[in-house]
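Subgroup meeting minutes
Present: P.N., E.W., G.H.
Scribe: E.W.

1. P.N. recapped why we're keeping a running log of single-chain structure predictions: easier to compare across weeks, and new members can see raw inputs and outputs side by side.
2. G.H. added today's entry (156 aa).
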Amino acid sequence: MKWTIHELIKKADSDIDLNRKINLKEFLSEDFNDVVDILDTSVSGNFEYIKVEDTFAFYLNIKTTLTMLCSITLKKVNVDLDFNTDLYFSRDYIDDDTHVIDGITIDLKPYIFSEIITEKPMRVVSQDAYENYEEDIEKLDEEEIVENSPFAKLKK
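Output recorded in log:
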């Protein structure tokens, strides 16, 4: 999903529909420690070239499945995502919602991956996460609470 600016300007008059399956696995890294895998992502929608503002607007529907780790058991859990998003690109800075085009090409893949990471749940819990779950609650007496308080030194 990469085009030059001139290709997009030409396509804006006729072929504005987008319907692709893309692979975004290349963007997964250790920085996303709760996301293990991402299946092929379906991207559909359209775009327009707003001549007055020299801006490209992409109106997209994104469908994908993430494999995330359960926050309790670390088991793999599939998370289906289906959401709409709008992406705006311009050659010059307009506002914080509009991406500045670097060079003469627009590559949507990193922006789509960024939108997916924004939409993913903060944590997931597998269906059987609480079956063998035991919580160890440690009780502290008053003296231990004061000793472990980060404000204890301020009191002195």
